[in-house]
Amino acid sequence: MLTPETYTLNLRGRLYSLASPKVMAIINVTPDSFFPGSRTPDRTSIECRVETAIAQGADMLDIGGYSSRPGAPEVSEDEEYSRLASGLEIIRRKAPDAIVSVDTFRSGVARRCVLEWGADIINDISAGMLDPLMAPVAAELGTPVVLMHMRGTPATMQSLTDYRDPVADVISELAERISIFRSHGVADVIADPGFGFAKTTEQNYRLMRHLEEFRALECPLLVGISRKSMIYRPLGITPSEALPGTTALNMASLLKGAAILRVHDVAEAVQTVKIFNLLSHA
After folding, report:
1. pTM
2. What distance in Å separates the CA atoms of residue 56 and residue 268, rounded to the nearest whole number?
3. 274 flagged as catalytic
């Protein structure tokens, strides 16, 4: 079992410790997320999702308005922001002190969510590759950023899985993106290996097996494998049946140094973190 580094994030002027792993709840304000059980297309379902996630012990809420699943339709910047704003209004009304991460690769959307709704973290699936302004905007806002490894776009990524060494290449490519953001003055970076993005199932499991090597990036690690195809396809099941497999890989991630679990199923992830903490201090 790894001894995790103690990282902190500056969230709007207050230090937030990641000494114990955190659970980030997925809030999808989209009509077409790959997991039907996570869709919250109207105000009532958004309110229910937010209230449930908070009650079950979520440490953070990650709200997204643009599905990144392969084949998802294009969403305009105005439509993406409109979806996010509808969800953020509910979050700030229902849980004004919640730590909110906004899942977007567009710097203009990120800026509005931070300035108008007090979003605490920017979660960019492209690590700034789809919008070169993301790094300077994040630096200007002083906001921590999740940088995920991906190649191409959600529409093209699954044709870009040719790696010399998946582990070394993903770490190297992420390190390059992290360096760019830090050169612009972004102090707090969270790394996400990008399970399922421009990776085959075999490559995903190789990354998981060697996850501890991502410590070389010297930043907290976020893992998002919740109900993904790397779980349900090898098992011959559907995303709706993939919670046990998700829980197994979430524990594996924690044992290998993950600081944040991004999940659909909050209660189960919170229990997993509690059991991990008991193991760590036994």
Report:
1. 0.94
2. 9
3. no
